[in-house]
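SAMPLE LOG
Freezer: B-3
Tube label: C17
Construct: single chain, 191 aa
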Amino acid sequence: AHSCGARVLAMDMDAAVLRQQSPAQRVTADICHVPLVDGCMDRVVLTEVLEHVADPNKVMAEAVRVAAPGTRFLLSVPSEAAEKLQQRLAPPAYFEPPGHIRIFAPGQLEGLATAHGLVVERRLAGSLYWSVWWALFWTCDCELAQPRHRLLRRWDQTWELVLRARDGDRIRAAFSEICPKSEALVCLKPP
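STRUCTURE (predicted):
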């Protein structure tokens, strides 16, 4: 977005996380109290954020407040199926603050968006690939910043073979319907 001339603003409570968001303008702040004026943003992206916060309603209210009429939103959260898989495999800290402290049931993200006046334009689901990747990651004992492990490389290779198979697209779609990594919405704040 930045390379297309957009002014990108990244916000997080952790300044170290923000340093990874170059070339965005960085704001260290609590997402429940956004230090921006009403209606100043024309796009809002909240991807894989709401599962980390104690009060998604406050976060959504702030996001809608800073959005101008006609703003498009991209919202995503991990799917309930993917999170239940992670609960069986991830270390307990994964589901403690600042990790994933909330699991969204099907329809909850859409309910949250519409309760704050947004109109859902499109529903998306993330790939099974990432659900399996994360399940395998926990046993690899490698750093997330450099997830180089033979098991993860083999999963990449296997998935590529699945996609190239005669029925690859059908297999991907069927698996991803059962256990998508994420649920995502494209929404509009009405003009």
